[in-house]
Amino acid sequence: MVTASQLAALTRTLPPVAAHADAIATDFYDRLFAARPDLLRDRFNRGEHAQGRQARELARTVVALAEAVIDAAPGSGTSSSARAAATLHPTSRQAGAPTLAGSTAAEITSRLAQRHAALGIRRHDHPAFEAALREAMRASSASASSSHSDSVSVSDEASPEALDDEAVEAWTALYRQVIAEVADAVDDLYRHADLEPDEEWREAIVTEHRLEAEDVVALTLVSADSEALPRYRAGQFASVQVELADGARQIRQYSLRGGPDEQWRISARVLDGGGFAPDGEVSTHLRDEIAVGGVVRVSPPIGSLTIDELDDAPLLFVSAGIGCTPVLGMLDHLARTEPLRPVTALHFERTPERHAHRTELEALVAAMPNASLRVSYTQGSLSALTAAGGIGESIDGQGAYLDPIDLGTVALTAEHRVFLCGPVPFMAIARAALIEHGVEADRVHYFVFGPDDGSVTGIDTGQRGR
Ligand SMILES: Cc1cc2nc3c(=O)[nH]c(=O)nc-3n(C[C@H](O)[C@H](O)[C@H](O)COP(=O)(O)OP(=O)(O)OC[C@H]3O[C@@H](n4cnc5c(N)ncnc54)[C@H](O)[C@@H]3O)c2cc1C
Ligand code: HEM
Fold this sequence. Notes:
This protein has helices spanning 4-19, 21-35, 37-42, 46-50, 53-72, 79-88, 105-119, 126-144, 165-192, 281-288, 324-337, 358-366, 384-387, 424-436, 455-458; strands at 202-212, 216-223, 237-243, 249-255, 264-269, 295-298, 315-320, 343-349, 371-377, 417-421, 444-447. It is of the alpha/beta class and 466 residues long. The chain has three domains: 4-192, Globin-like (Orthogonal Bundle), CATH 1.10.490.10; 202-298, Translation factors (Elongation Factor Tu (Ef-tu), domain 3), CATH 2.40.30; 307-458, Nucleotide-binding domain of ferredoxin-NADP reductase (FNR) module (Rossmann fold, 3-Layer(aba) Sandwich), CATH 3.40.50.80. The radius of gyration is 23 Å and the shape is globular. Flavin-adenine dinucleotide (FAD) binds next to helix 4, strand 4, strand 5 and helix 10.
């Protein structure tokens, strides 16, 4: 546990750390990967790393954790000025995106546990992380007391004391407290899935491999040994690890699409860099290098956002693009277990050629007497976001637009539960529109196919009040 004196040191140094969190996190990853190149090669997403996204997410999360721990401490009134300075400083957050401010430490650790469980991060990985964190904090501290400019400086912001030894110890103590809680939560997740530690990754054989729509590859997987792949709950996903041409074993997550048997079905939209950026490494590999009989490694099914643990409210699914995959998993489950459940599905896709699993979607909805489906093809139409002068010209990549979601045509009640899945700006718009239509925020659930930076709930989409 963080002690009272460590809490005071955290409070004192939160503003300078928040002000330079991105730089400290970047320095941290440089150190971590210099010491453990295998982590970048085989565990972290190296494309995301090249774009600096992991550093931004780590910075944002560490600052939010410190804020949450400080705020939760008895008599935390003294923290509010530090907190305000930390959350308001422009460099402590990604442009346009909110912090995790307001989340409790428990909420953040639970989110991290899901992410880390899906990647197989275990206790033996912790020391390297702690060592790099200490070094990055010390490097920032060192520059506070010298005039060298080649390391990260935190001296000029908010506190002349910056990061002394006491502060480095306090931030390390915070790391230890959080990672211990995350590791316990990861253990719980595995226990819940009836898995022993170190049993988590399995080999799976591809038994079906086909192109679904123009850029989506659909795979069916079965266990490579006599023990079947674990059963999953509708809405869960698994990590898939593939060995790439240069020997790197990269990991990505894919939603489990449904089916009554012990086979797993996943679908990946192949990311096309369009000549400006590299093509997606794993999705391209799954399409071009994997064939029937090929082997991939898979994690256990992960994910707590599943419909079978919620109430029996009427459901609205709103998906766009490859966001159809968890919806297909949930519809498949409902069609088999609760075919009379009132369900509305809205799906948005740019063109019919890009629409993966349309036949499957229509068949599932047709099998449920109280279910209805509306599909919108949106290429060429202007999004509400653009019209509102919102966050960019497009909410689904350059040159492609999604129609505004016309909730006037949906028989929405206050009882409805809503599941969203699609590009983050799309979900931000949809969520804001749903809340505007009277749906309680806590009844709007969403799946993010990447780092969750909070944009779905935090962004001002310009749709409110419409
Ligand atoms: C819970 C969850 C469920 C998911 N479910 C699905 C699903 O069902 N179906 C699905 O298709 N996806 C799903 N995803 C997304 C999936 O995990 C991958 O993120 C996606 O397939 C892209 O991976 P990739 O390896 O092809 O692309 P990456 O290689 O990860 O590339 C990502 C981006 O980084 C850029 N990039 C790569 N290398 C560099 C570089 N060196 N410099 C600069 N930029 C670079 C690429 O151009 C691309 O824009 C899910 C994600 C999560 C978290
Ligand atoms: C308190 C300690 C830690 C914090 C606050 C933390 C925070 C984070 C955050 C914010 C993310 C991004 C979440 C997302 O992608 O949505 C992440 C992902 C990840 N973390 Fe941690 N982490 C911690 C400890 C560790 C440790 C000890 C390891 C071990 C090596 C680790 C390995 C990873 C990996 C591999 C990813 C996936 C990154 C990717 O591929 O995009 N983390 N972590």
